[in-house]
Automatic annotation (TrEMBL):
Keywords: Cytoplasm, GTP-binding, Magnesium, Metal-binding, Nucleotide-binding. This is GTPase HflX. The keyword Cytoplasm applies. Its cofactor is Mg(2+). GTPase that associates with the 50S ribosomal subunit and may have a role during protein synthesis or ribosome biogenesis. Pfam families: GTP-bdg_M (PF16360), GTP-bdg_N (PF13167), MMR_HSR1 (PF01926). Mg(2+) binds at S212, T232. Belongs to the TRAFAC class OBG-HflX-like GTPase superfamily. HflX GTPase family. Residues 199-366 form the Hflx-type G domain. HAMAP family: GTPase_HflX. The keyword Amino-acid biosynthesis does not apply. It comes from Pseudomonas pohangensis. Monomer. Associates with the 50S ribosomal subunit. GO terms for cellular component: cytoplasm.
Amino acid sequence: MFFERPGGGERAILVHLEGQEPGVREDPQEFQELALSAGAEAVAFVRVPRSQMTAKYLIGSGKVDELHQLVQSTQAELVIFNHTLTPSQERNLERAFECRVLDRTGLILDIFAQRARTHEGKLQVELAQLDHMSTRLVRGWTHLERQKGGIGLRGPGETQLETDRRLLRVRIRQIRKRLDTVRSQREQARRGRRRAEIPSVSLVGYTNAGKSTLFNTLTGSGVYAADQLFATLDPTFRRLDLEDVGPVVLADTVGFIRHLPHKLVEAFRATLEESSNADLLLHVIDAHEPERQLQIEQVLAVLGEIGAAEIPLLEVYNKLDLLEGIEPHIQRDVDGRPERVWLSARDGRGLELLRQAIAELLGNDLFIGTVHLPQRLGRLRAQLFAVGAVLKETHDEAGETLLEVRVPRTELNRLISREGFQPDEFIQQHTLQ
């Protein structure tokens, strides 16, 4: 009997495995939020003890029969597992339930497919979906696994399944080639920022921690922000001016999640590289989340996977508006450096403290002193005023300008180099002749 894969739908039964070890345990509340974000209408939530796991169905045959009856009684069109299923387990479950079956990875991929807006984002999602689909082609083409014989049925020596796999590989290579071009373009942009010595700050954190809301409040942008998982997929960049630092580039990036599928990490590597090449990471944390410590550990694990574990990091505890008795404040380490900032991105409380903390971490190499400018260097004087570096201006007996400045050394180097001078010589002499 041929196996044709059932169609999908929105009415879904959610299946969660209980009693797993902490390292592989999934959060049932997060699972329901994922299903809601994908647009599913949950008609039932079933918890299955881990002791009933089997190789054929993942769950026991008795529970399979129970779920089959539940599918029929609720007229469900989809069964979603909060767990990773093998291709054979998905096929066996779909045969048993007579409806579509989706695992956690497939659910997250579906959400990403809905959220992607830019051409790059859509390519990244398609790559992850094709990688995931390549191991599951056998389900839809079981009736074409054998080459047909007889008059009019002899083919080119390749089964339909082999043809599909070959076409899939071709498409995957095309997408990876395009994403390599995107990666090189991003690297060119980063090199340009490094030449201009403009620091970059990247927002990272668990999905729905409030990164986009914070990004909008800090920069006055209109990036899409919603109380849902994976509201942001495509990175967004804005300029942020900070006292004692000058302009910085702030990046809003995709959120992480517990057990983020490796296919997604690989597909979104071009996007995630913005975090691995930043000068400072702002780890946005939902202060109201009971499982926040597990979320923090998951974010740190993904940062390690993309090579960003050694980048300076400032923790930003967001959503103080949902807590009582805690006011915005900065927590510092034993050396007095900012370590955590507590704030509310929604109502704006604590944003100045965040600006102050970022400026301290990025602008710790400050030049504070007097600059002696001849009259012919009026343009440099104007630039120092423009970046807010001048604390006081006086003039000597010859009418030349004396400026007391407080400015990041990198910004001072950039301005001096534009005038054709050597920054090191100037910094040692504290005067420009």
